[in-house]
Design brief:
7 helices, 2 strands, two-stranded antiparallel ribbon, mainly alpha
Length: 174
Amino acid sequence: MYFLNEILPKILIVLASALAMEWVAWASHKYIMHGFGWAWHRDHHEPHDNKLEKNDLFGIFGAALSIALFALGNPAVLGDAAWPPAFWMAVGVMLYGLIYTFIHDGIVHQRFFRYVPRGGYAKRLVQAHRLHHATIGKEGGVSFGFVFPRNPAKLKAELAKQRDSGKARLRSNA
């Protein structure tokens, strides 16, 4: 009973929060990073030899959200005004940030180590994200989410439609 009443709800809050962050990442990527935040995101789409990118500043917002939720759920910070579920939401947000950093920066962009997936989910994820980088500039594009990659064949077809309609310019190797 203890597991069902105490532990399982916390696990579900963590998982739901991490899953919700995929939508937050998709929306902020599509409408902020490829919108008014392009000045910070641009260097992520252009070749460079820098260890850091202005784009890395966006991670501060995810960290701030997690920190704020940790504070909101912590009685040591807010006393009786604390909302305990917020602590577990913070864990979910932090979990998503770790997954995103490890897989996106580590595997997809190979900023930490060299690993090229040969099949399965990891290969599909890398392919979908590479297709996101197939456009020149902030206009058009596909695959703004991350954890749930769409079928690369469908993404290629969508990019072709964008190119043909003039909505997006594609790199020559796309």
